[in-house]
Amino acid sequence: MIxxxxxxxxxxxxxxVDGLTFTVRPGRVTGFLGPNGSGKSxxxxxxxxxxxxxxxxxxxxxxxxxxxxxxLREVGAxxxxxxVHPARSARHHLLGLAVTNGIGPRRxxxxxxxxxxxxxxxxxxxxxxxxxxxxxxxxAALLGDPPVLLLDEPVNGLDPEGVQWIRxxxxxxxxxxxxxxxxxxxxxxxxxxADHLVVIGRGRLVADRSTADFLAEHARTDVLVRCAxxxxxxxxxxxxxxxxxxxxxAGALAVVGLEPSAIGELAAGHGIGxxxxxxxxxxxxQAFMDAVGGAVDYRAxxxxxxxxxxxxxxxxxxxxxx
Length: 322
What we know:
Elements: E1 2-11, E2 14-24, E3 28-33, H1 40-47, E4 55-60, H2 71-74, E5 75-78, H3 90-100, H4 105-114, H5 130-142, E6 148-152, H6 160-175, E7 179-183, H7 187-193, E8 196-201, E9 204-210, H8 211-218, E10 221-227, H9 230-239, E11 244-247, E12 253-256, H10 260-269, E13 274-281, H11 284-292
Parallel strand pairs: 3-7, 3-8, 5-6, 6-7
Antiparallel strand pairs: 1-2, 1-4, 8-9, 10-12, 10-13, 11-12
């Protein structure tokens, strides 16, 4: 498994990772989440020995990655799908990696088939699309048939078939007892793939728990109500103890704090016809924003401000705009 203990990394006056501790266990897919600038990439690089920690340690199966004699056989990693010589074919790229770890050419053929690149094996990587480069990076990670996998944004650039394929692959590998750490910004995909979540913000641990428990704690549930007299029902619901009653499009209500059965009985008791009662579970994205809302370093404004007239962008012959 992957163990991170009191891990810190400082770049000058910036503390990128701050006393981070967590364990990635075998037999499940662990999602590694955090806003931009939270320290995810730095943490992954320290696990793989690419950056030296300022304090603490990161080990794979009890040892630093740099001490592994045949690292591809123990850890499969994808950090940058573009990290391949553009003039090399997919096959030669994988063969070069295989030779350095005592892996035969048969395994190269196997991972090319597994990732759907067999027909493109002799094409130069520089001509690959982003999705094909992702597949090549995943092939390299799988080359040594490792018990531990560490993947950063593996679905980036993949088409829908590829996304479904990598989701199934990672879950199957975890079911075999392997350790899988998946870093991603795609919350909807992480919710479908990860059994466990490690969430960080500003280099610190925010959550380390099962996906189900994380959603139960941070995702708000409400009941969508469509009825004949929404304004009247809203007053009744508030009087009955609803935590909140919000207005939705087309006259619907979003009710928090009352069960659907109680809402339906209240409406029936006052002769209000109910057309819909739907329990809505918040998404992982909403739960994530709730958990890390105070630890987001880069936040865009919802409405950009305009400081100059629109006509200032118009150019005339012989003139330039600033």
